[in-house]
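Could someone model magnesium ion with this protein?
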Amino acid sequence: MIGIAVLGSTGSIGASTLDVVARHGDRFRVHTLAAHSDHRRLLAQCLVHRPQRAILEDAQAAQELGAALRSCALPTRVECGPAALSDAVRDPGVAVVMAAIVGAAGLPSTIAAASAGKRVLLANKESLVVGGALLVAAARRGGATLIPIDSEHNAIFQCLPAGVSTGVPASGVRRILLTASGGPFLRKSRAEMTRATPDEACAHPRWRMGRKISVDSATLMNKGLELIEACVLFGMEPRQVEVVVHPQSIVHSMVEYVDGSVLAQLGNPDMRTPIAHALGWPERIASGVESLDLVAAARLDFEAPDIGRFPALRLARAAAESGGTSPAVLNAANEVAVAAFLAGRLGFPGVPAIIEAVLERHDCRPVTDLEDVLAVDRWARSEAESMLTRAAVAGT
Ligand code: NAD
Ligand code: MG
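Reply:
Sure, complex below.
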């Protein structure tokens, strides 16, 4: 039995992971479940999956969970805080770690899992953007296998030759074609985007996801983060990664080789496909995803992204080209701006505006270690927060 820790179990990726795992009860055993504060959802998951450990970031929520589990006579140990996460992923009973926490908060536990030589199923793209070089180095030192869960990167991984190492360009690859659905505002005017509400931004036409990544998909920052993610994972230069809008979300990305061959991975837009691929790899296991009906889909369209309406993509490409600390600053400013937009404190165009302003105040330099990058992350968050405060004061 393969022990698995699902970090971010109460989220969208966490739920899809548990769905796939439950289809293979003879193969996987849920060892650890971890989330931020939703103790009710975590309790329901504990009752079904009976893990050894359950971890909540929030201490009060952890107490509630502990009391509820005791009353159900479940022996699951309840812990709280980030140190418990990093400890849990090192547990010898855990072979596979699903890193599905949202945001840079997932970086320390993902690095801990990589350092401990686990198979790391990497959904938490922000950790690759913030500390990509550190994470790849930790995996190399620890002997870990990193398998991307992001549908595009999982598709690229499937289209690359077997045996490529993380962060090392595969021989014969000319470039990567990273597909983007275009998000909910693909056909909206600038005026409509200026008035966009959080619910409109989260109404993704193809994917059901958490609210932060849904807003990232609306600004196209999601594709920008994914461009950086692709450079880190596959050892590509930013100019080798082209973003192509593909509204049907059936082709999940493509790899072009020097001989002109282009390999693509296709499938219904359902995250259980990349999750099952990564859980079973190198074998194939069932995911519960329906067969792709290409005749019903009928068309596959491709177009160039509109950088004018989606400046986040330009900012992310520039950060990828600068390298060093710039992607961490881009990510932190984005996390703060997206949270402010979701809370009704900032308009939709304010999201890229805040990110651009924070990047302008940053002096890019190489990343040294985890502490260093976490300090950069804190700096960028406080800059973004003070810009938000100044904007609010100016607006009153
Ligand atoms: P979500 O908001 O639905 O879930 C996030 C999970 O992280 C929740 O379980 C939450 O409790 C947990 N969490 C948040 N902060 C935490 C903290 N400090 N400590 C512990 N747990 C914490 O998000 P999601 O859509 O499942 O996305 C998760 C990650 O996967 C993100 O990085 C996202 O970019 C990536 N991703 C998601 C999808 C998708 O289809 N949802 C696709 C590709 C990549
Ligand atoms: Mg993606």
